[in-house]
Amino acid sequence: MALISRRLFCALPAIKVITPALAGSVETARTDLSLEGYLPTFTSDFTALHPPSQLPPSGSRWADLGQWTPRYRFNKDLRGCSFPGEYQWYVDPRHDFGPGIGRVSPFSVTDGVLSIVAEQTPESILAKLPGRIDVDKKDTSIPYPWISGVITTQNSFWYRYGYAEALVKLPAGQALWPAFWLLPKEWPYSPEIDIMEHISHEPRKSNYNVIPGTPDKPMDGMGDYADRGLDLTLDWHSYGCLWTPEKFDFFIDRKLIGSVPAHPTMDKCHYYLIVNLAVGGKWPGPPGPQTPSPAMLQVRHVKVWQKPN
User: Which CATH number do you get for residue 32?
Assistant: First the structure.
């Protein structure tokens, strides 16, 4: 499946060193991107977040961040979700862990910045989590040693063709694996678009990938990575993808870092947005003493622009 392909994807060996853009506002930096003729169709500027005690019950739709749902659609466990091989459990902040614990949230908002927090699992909920599933999809019977968060627009927004962008500050530390990516609404259709995947022990690199195919015939990913020429964890950067019928153009700070040709299977789907902070896996390796707890992926905005019609 494409989802598993994404989790196992390794960057190709080619290297691109991109000249750093000006520090500061993405909007004022010199760019390679033109959005002439495009209009905003999705905007999420984070300004507030209800505490877990005010969220609706687990299993119900979550709209407290406006457009976001804190889980993947293919996992029905009310406690949250994860991927095989990873070490974190994405806690659903709507779930009540019981007396003396209540609800646990990996999210916070300060001054319009959303923080997705990964940390070692508190002892109070460790025994209440499921056993970690390893990369071979076997239950280890050992509860997930980390908790973190994922947000998706699977219940509110999806699109075909346009420019999607997230302005984020990446975490630094062994085995941290933040991502901004897209999956099709037409589940279980397999195409996938990875706009940014960052393995934090390679702080200068941003990985991008497109996985075409159909449910019965998934294809290999068509991806690469860009060496930004600086440590991406030190400052805010925007990561974006301009999707047209002909190709996918990938950007950092609105400067082109690479392109992938379009594929017919991609045009059959509408895509929703995902932002998450994973910990460990086959690609980044396991967390260890050098993995900070807590670690934060910070998000200032997520936006999409499209042409009319």
Answer: 2.60.120.200
